[in-house]
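Possible regression after last week's pipeline update?

I re-ran a chain I had predicted before the update to compare outputs. Posting the input and the new output here so someone can diff against the archived version. Not blocking, just want to make sure nothing changed silently.
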Amino acid sequence: MTKSKYLGIWMDHARANLMEYTTEPIQTVTIECGFTHEVETEVLDKGESMMLNKQKQQQSDYYKKLGEAIVHYDNVILFGPTNAKVELLNTLKEDLHFKNIKIEVTGADKMTENQQHAFVREYFSKN
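New output (post-update):
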């Protein structure tokens, strides 16, 4: 029997910190959404509808990158201060690649990297 793999993701709409739960010290890998304030200002000059389309495209690319990481794990906890985690979960539910992955969502405030690591350790040590 193989050991299941655990992944914690603290996220908001701008960035996600991915932390694999292991016996080793937890390492953080960050994935950022390409829709920055600078991009928003640049696109907004071209029109609001263009800005909304660009934002939707960037958000979709961001969730796709996260999905590419999540598919390699058996258990995932999504946590953070915004509803981005729920949006990602809803996106993943539509894809059969994720049907055998246990993905849970919980709210969390802004956290330091050490607080995020402690949260992931505590969450998966209970499971």
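Follow-up from reviewer: compared with the archived run. The chain has a mean pLDDT of 86. Marking as no regression found.
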